[in-house]
Amino acid sequence: TFSALSFAFGGVAVGTSLSPMLTAEHSWLPWASLGVVVACRGHVAIWPTALAGLPFAAMYLVGAPENALLAAVLAVLSTRLVDTPASWSRALGQLAAAGAVSVALVAFSLLPALSFIATSDRSGGISPAEAGRWSLHPGELLGLVVPKLCPSLIAAETLGQPQRPWHPSLFTGMVAAGLACIGLLGWRRDARVRWVMLVILGLLLVALG
């Protein structure tokens, strides 16, 4: 918990994103997970489900709708990490209900936006080179422990790809990294820690492209 808080308020989410849009979107990520986790507890109720849809709607409205998919994945995974895990069917059901609420909330903007998708620059897809530009290079992982190391490497083109302006560093701070490592030390006695490690590995593979 402390590691997550220090990460959210002092790491990548605040300190290294140069896009206000992404900073605003990142701030809603923990609320999206919390909303689905709370909605999965106890009996099915309207208000928890309705409130769970608000963070997803907010992510769309601040201009980062694609990251709502990441939030959905993290929200479902979070339901498996609490003291009383929800079943997969319950978690996915609550996520679908929250998604329906969020779509209803942003419908006034969503429907016009959908009509303009066909005229966007990316309507026909993007090249592999452009897609790879935004993938995480393995060398950038060094930035987790050495702040601003990666931008200098990218600027020197030692990573073989153009500089990405939105996330110049992955450095999260030694406090967050230290607390995360302490938490991972319990992987033998707590199955949830092993589950988190698998999630981290899976998301890392996705980030690497």
If you had to describe this structure to a student in words, what would you say it looks like?
By secondary structure, the chain is mainly alpha-helical. It has helices at 2-10, 12-16, 20-39, 46-61, 67-78, 88-105, 107-116, 128-133, 149-155, 174-184, 191-207. Helix 1 (2-10) packs antiparallel against helix 10, helix 4 (46-61) runs antiparallel to helix 5 and helix 4 crosses helix 6. The chain is built from 11 helices and no strands. It starts with a helix and ends with a helix.
Topology, pairings included?
Elements: H1 2-10, H2 12-16, H3 20-39, H4 46-61, H5 67-78, H6 88-105, H7 107-116, H8 128-133, H9 149-155, H10 174-184, H11 191-207
Helix pairs in contact: 1-10, 3-4, 3-5, 4-5, 4-6
